Amino acid sequence: MSDLMNALGAYMDSAEGPCVVAATRVLDRELSSEMHRHARGQLFGSIKGLISVQVDDGVWIVPAIHAVWLPPHQAHCGRSHGPYHGWSAYVAEAACADLPKRPCTIRVSGLLREAVLRLAGFPPGEPPSEAQSHVCAVVLDEIRSLPAEAFGLPLPRDTRLQRIARALMANPADARDIESWADFGALSSRTLSRRFVAETGFNFTAWRQRVRLLRSLEMLAEGMSVTAIAIDLGYASVSAYIGLFRRVFGETPASYRLHLQTKA
């Protein structure tokens, strides 16, 4: 696997080679990376497990049914939660002209996943065959046509709000009320409320709720029980957590975890 990744690495910042190159990774431990960027665009997701990705103005928690698209030169970092089986596709900058201009999440179609896995099977370092070029075209068509979905957590731009947001991301169970958070950020509660909506599209309560739910996805992937998650994240009861999870994601936490564990 290391030889494959080394060979693939030669393409990440190069226009040479196929317009799309891909690889898969299987690890029995967590995978993490520092903030970095590539000259190529990148699409990546998981076959089994959960990943989180951060860019300058947002964070995504990405289950196996979604993938993150990053345009060329986009700074990002990421990590998996628990054992990781995932894939990445790198798109030459010239082929990104009609692909999304900003980072986004897309729901992965069966066709897209299979096309990426097929590309990962082609030997790196060799001139692209006609078959490989056809599969590249399928991947590009799928990225271009699949709908973007709001599955991330936008970060505010105001440095005072960012301080509050990052504190909540570090400890989603923090139960301070909005007045206390406003004091923490050195601004009025009215300004906090107004600017949070303007800069993230969520009111403060909804944003905090989303932090907890997305963190709960990570905890589910790490094998924690539903009861422990509800307690650790400060929900009033286990049933309150389950009910909110079902309203947002359309299934119970237990069902969602089963999908994470059995997705193949």
Could you explain the architecture of this structure?
With 264 residues, the protein is an alpha+beta fold. It has 2 domains: 2-149, Jelly Rolls; 155-262, Arc Repressor Mutant, subunit A (Orthogonal Bundle). It is built from 10 helices and 9 strands. The chain has helices at residues 2-12, 110-120, 130-145, 159-170, 178-185, 189-200, 204-221, 226-232, 238-249, 253-262; strands at 20-27, 32-36, 41-55, 58-62, 66-70, 76-91, 104-107, 148-149, 152-154. Strands 1, 2, 3, 4, 5, 6, 7, 8 and 9 form a 9-stranded antiparallel β-sheet that branches. Residues 162-259 form the HTH araC/xylS-type domain. Keywords: DNA-binding, Transcription, Transcription regulation. This is AraC family transcriptional regulator.
Secondary structure elements and their pairing?
Elements: H1 2-12, E1 20-27, E2 32-36, E3 41-55, E4 58-62, E5 66-70, E6 76-91, E7 104-107, H2 110-120, H3 130-145, E8 148-149, E9 152-154, H4 159-170, H5 178-185, H6 189-200, H7 204-221, H8 226-232, H9 238-249, H10 253-262
Antiparallel strand pairs: 1-6, 2-6, 3-4, 3-5, 3-6, 4-9, 5-7, 7-8
Helix pairs in contact: 2-3, 4-5, 5-6, 8-9
